[in-house]
Amino acid sequence: MKRLFVAIEVPKKLREKIFADLSEPLLNVNKTIANNLHITLCFIGDVSEQGEVEIVKRLEKIEFSEFNVLIGRVGQFDERVLWVSAEALELHNLADQISKTLHVDNEFNGHITIARTTQGADFDKEFAKIRNKRINQTIKVKSFVLLESKASPTGSVYSKVSEFKVIKKTKENKTKQSETKDSKTKK
Q1: Cβ atoms of 99 and 108 closer than 8 Å
Q2: For the residues of 30-59, what is the DSSP string, one character each?
């Protein structure tokens, strides 16, 4: 069994900026490793090898155009998780499309997890160190990935199973497809 999820990879320069600006000041937390920073679109869970093949087939059919995502404000979940926001309507639409395609009940909240508090940590004190910081950087999304998560003593290790690139839906492509069908029908 593999533990799988669908995500958008964060570019290296932005990972480094997030880590330097937001993670470094934090002390009593489990920081997300810079290489693991990502935007989760859909958590799938434990999947068999056959299930993985089916998931890849379904994800290959998803159509989307490239779009921009604003990486912005700092936030928190349940006095345990610190994150930075990832905002774009297209991001929500893509996450919805993936969840529906995979038949997964997924409540999407665009974010990049930067740290989780440790037991006994003073959450308010840690969050106060970064509360007013903003990244205010835009990334261009041209693909999403299927990742496998493996537990290790130092935290989760993610490996790419498959990547799914932009499939543009344009009027021009649809017109060309219609013209091709019409010319084949006339022959």
Answers
A1: yes
A2: EEPPGGG-EEEEEEEEEE-HHHHHHHHHHH
Mean pLDDT for the chain overall: 87
Q: What is the pLDDT of residue 187?
A: 43
Q: Residue 135 sits in which domain range?
A: 2-186
| Mean pLDDT of the region 72-82 | 89
Q: With H, G, I as helix, E, B as strand and everything else as coil, classify residue 39.
A: strand
Q: What is the pLDDT of residues 80-104, one digit of tens each?
A: 899 999 999 999 999 999 999 999 9
Please give the Cα distance from 97 to 94 (Å, whole number).
5
Task: Give me the residues paired with residue 158 across strands.
Answer: 149
Determine the Cα–Cα distance for residues 61 and 25; give it in Å rounded to an integer: 42
Strands 143-150 and 2-9: antiparallel
Write the CA distances from 14 to 83, 84, 91, 92, 106, integer angstroms: 14, 12, 18, 21, 26
Backbone angles phi, psi at 129, to 5 degrees: -65, -25
140: CATH: 3.90.1140.10
Q: Count structural domains, the chain.
A: 1
Residue 23 in contact with residue 133, Cβ under 8 Å? no
Binning pLDDT at 50, 70 and 90, where does residue 169 land?
low
